[in-house]
Amino acid sequence: MKIHIFESADQSGLEAARESARIINEAIAVNGTARIVLSTGASQFEFLEHVVKMDIAWEKVEMFHLDEYIGLPVEHPASFRKYLKERFLQHVNIGTFWLVDGEGDTNEVLDHLNREISKAPVDLALIGIGENAHIAFNDPPADFEDERPFKVVDLSDTCKMQQVGEGWFATMEDVPKQAISMSVQQILKSRNIISVVPRQSKARAIQDTLKNEVDVNTPATIMKTHANWSLYLDKQSSSLIYAWC
Ligand SMILES: N[C@@H]1[C@@H](O)[C@H](O)[C@@H](COP(=O)(O)O)O[C@@H]1O
Fold first, then answer.
1. What is the rounded CA–CA span in Å between residue 73 and residue 79?
2. Which UniProt keywords apply (predicted)?
3. N or C, which end of the chain is more exposed by having fewer CB within 10 Å?
4. Closest CA relative to residue 237, chosen from 92, 18, 85, 43
């Protein structure tokens, strides 16, 4: 595990984008292509803004989408497909992309995604950490054993509260009850994992992730078992680390 702490969310996003570009370009140099997974959510704003400007042969990159609400129209402001189209896909000449269609036939969508992701290793996964320390939509207590690459998960109240708190939905009842999410096991199969986690709202989750033993109740702790996990923080999200170390 490598922890990088920067003064601002912007700097943290920039440095994570630089490191991502390095990994992607190395994969392209070795294999001719790079396979990546992208997260969404407010934590990825700065990172995405910077990574689309990096010197990368995007036409040689295959992108997978980490998670999406089931039943939420793509036009909805909280749709993660809308998010990735506006913040990433419109800015790069991507080779191939696989968005998680939360409005399609769920079994067909899962079959398709599971087949595609299993074809080759993922070189780099950008994995955000939620206020409840979830990774993708694997809320606590997360299933660390499930081998299915993508699956249907129920969203917890703490997850829904974060989405309402950030203004994506008006009330808890408006947040979809389920999502299609990449599993913890599939995330861990990635050759490199970068977690960009800025802002004060994540300080507790970061403290818990670093301090707690690997435990299903703090899902992000599992990433401490990964050989190539890098955590990019800012001053605010790292503020509680010093309280115990
Ligand atoms: N579905 C997204 C994930 O793609 C993201 O990695 C994670 C943390 O992101 P954030 O806290 O910025 O929403 O949870 C979100 O709900």
1. 7
2. Carbohydrate metabolism
3. C
4. 43
CA 30/CA 57 separation, integer angstroms: 13
- pLDDT level of residue 64 (50, 70, 90 thresholds): very high
- For ligand 1, pick from 39, 64, 237 the residue to mutate: most ligand atoms within 8 Å of CB: 39
Whether the model clears a pTM of 0.90, i.e. scores above it, the answer is yes
Ligand 1 atom showing the smallest separation from residue 126 Cα: 6
Which residues does 194 contact at the CB level (< 8 Å), separation at least 6?
16, 19, 20, 23, 124, 125, 126, 127, 229, 230, 232
Domains and CATH numbers, the chain: 2-243 (3.40.50.1360)
pLDDT(136) > 80: yes
Could you tell me if the CB of 41 is within 6 A of ligand 1?
Answer: yes
